[in-house]
Fold:
Amino acid sequence: MANRQQSRIKQKIIYVITKSNWGGAGKYVYELATSLPKDKFDVLVVLGGNGELSKKLRQKGIRVIGLKRLERDISILNEYRVFKNLIHIFKRESPDIIHLNSSKIGGLGALAGRLAHVPKIVFTAHGWYFKEERNVLWILITKFLSWLTIILSHKVVTVSHEDETRVRNFPFILSKVSTIQIGAKKPEFLAPEIARQRLAEYMHQPISFLQNKDVIITIAELTKNKGIVYAISAMRRLKNSIYLIIGNGEDEEMLQHEISKYDLNNQIFLLGPIDNAATLLSGADIFLLPSIKEGLPYVLLEAGFARLPVVAASTGGIPEVIIHRKTGLLVPIKQSREIARSIEALLDSQSTQEHLGIALSNHVESKFTFDIMLNSTLSLYE
Structure:
């Protein structure tokens, strides 16, 4: 109780996230946790494992509690242990606010927060689980669990308007759900020639290898939802292009097999995870995001800051950033041929590349800045 009396001056907030990898949700937690006014908030982050997110937070002086069981695959016994740990942490820390991130931790964390009598429980949905292509029973179960998470939370944030519409007709949620679109800070881009040189180094190739080549780049986790397998297939039609994929994930081995199967090892390169990868965007010609499922991805905003022309799949919140033929080119999901055609259209017209890159940059800098997101989130905490 004493903690909460003191917190009338300085509020204690706990961010909870399932994994400690450096993905979109991780970046969201990092940017908020490190940007809250220090004279108004005492910040703690609870996360699974000890990955890149955990290291970056500690470097910034943010207190972190790692729960190994939190990042493991779902099992009843494991979730029960995580649930008990969360209740213990919430009761011990006595936060004014808990801010939950990811579908897995949403329901568990919200229920634990209720039982620990946390005054305000906020959940951010970084894309709903039930949007994935699964069987009908799985979709119904995850829809129910998503609804339950909303019921147990005091406020729910969707990062795109599209995600908000997905739950608008859920019963008994009143006005709990609102959209606060992702906002990004402008990366400190390397000079184009230096970025190009760095990319060649990550490829283990001389810079001459990229001369007179069109460089197409994707930054993404290597998972099914990112649709990279369809981009790999599209590259078979783009013989003068080099496709660079930055990131890691469970599908890495499968994707490398696809690259080898089509004999594209000298055209497509899996570069693995690269720290501050967005700073290298200035060395590319086109940004490609072939996702099957998305919330609202940071990488599109970063591509906009870099003034890159973008080809992206029309899914989730992507069309809120990429307006077809105005701020980029949209393609249907899982359509390799359309990906190739759109890239070819850009490569055939330098003026179109420049026009779309500038238009996207203006769009991002007017609607998707980090300050807009931060101020909206702070209003939610009040």
Remarks:
- The radius of gyration is 21 Å.
- The longest strand covers residues 11-17.
- The longest helix spans residues 76-93.
